[in-house]
Amino acid sequence: MKIGFIGVGNMAKSIIAGWLAKKTFRPEDILVHSAHRNNYEKYAKETGVTACDSNTVLAQEADIILLAVKPFVLASIIDEISDVMNENKLIISMASGVSLAEIESQFKDKKIPIIRIMPNVNVEINEGMTAFVRNSSVTDIAYEQAKSLFDSLGRTLEIPEKDFSIFVALAGSSPAYIYYFIDAMARSGVKYGLTKKQATEISAQAVLGSAQKVLATTKSPMDMVDDVCSPGGTTIAGLLAMEEAGFMTAVVKGIDATVLKDQATH
């Protein structure tokens, strides 16, 4: 099986890196093409993936075509590959804000199987989170096959298309928020005499372990907060100071802004 990437930006490279690490695909079975020849040809030489001369050639040779492009160029890409597409090929789109119905309409009368996904950058280390939704032309076999590819990169979740904007906020954009939180903690460590490297390692490991513990238990995160907060202790003092500074409100406002921005692209 061959999979082709139209668009070779950071997310595409993260997905490819995850699959190569897991040996899900042989490098030569991953095809790439983009508008930036220097980028994709250099990347192909560095990784061993196959560079294609055009989007049409890629779509002809690939069994699965992953559209990893900006929403505003998606229509022109589909126009370019439409003639070589058929019901035996699968389209996977991760163009934010472009619905299945919009993609289907661009293929006109062809019944092309289409899956819409939204991954996050942690797929690169096989700890990603990817949302899935499919159109009626995708068979159960094709769907499970595609889903298994992304299961190898972390966790997957089938959600209604109307919920993709909140998924973007909670999974797609949130790694940046979490990196920011880790950096803020690390800078506090530097304030009290640790090196930035030491403080970052401590903070990142604390976030990693805490996330793993949330996923491993049936307790709610707030119950776990209570478990750590001893009466009159240091943790509750720190939490109350954070909340006084607007910690939870800031997080919710950040999610709201992300959702609104994603919805504005529809």
UniProtKB/TrEMBL annotation:
Keywords: Amino-acid biosynthesis, Cytoplasm, NADP, Oxidoreductase, Proline biosynthesis. NADPH binds at N55. One of its GO terms (cellular component) is cytoplasm. Transmembrane segments: none annotated. One of its GO terms (molecular function) is pyrroline-5-carboxylate reductase activity. Its main location: cytoplasm. It catalyses: L-proline + NADP(+) = (S)-1-pyrroline-5-carboxylate + NADPH + 2 H(+); L-proline + NAD(+) = (S)-1-pyrroline-5-carboxylate + NADH + 2 H(+). Pfam families: F420_oxidored, P5CR_dimer. InterPro entries: 6-PGluconate_DH-like_C_sf (IPR008927), NAD(P)-bd_dom_sf (IPR036291), P5C_Rdtase_cat_N (IPR028939), P5CR_dimer (IPR029036), Pyrroline-COOH_reductase (IPR000304). The keyword Ligase does not apply. Its EC number is 1.5.1.2. NCBIfam families: proC. This is Pyrroline-5-carboxylate reductase. It comes from Liquorilactobacillus hordei DSM 19519.
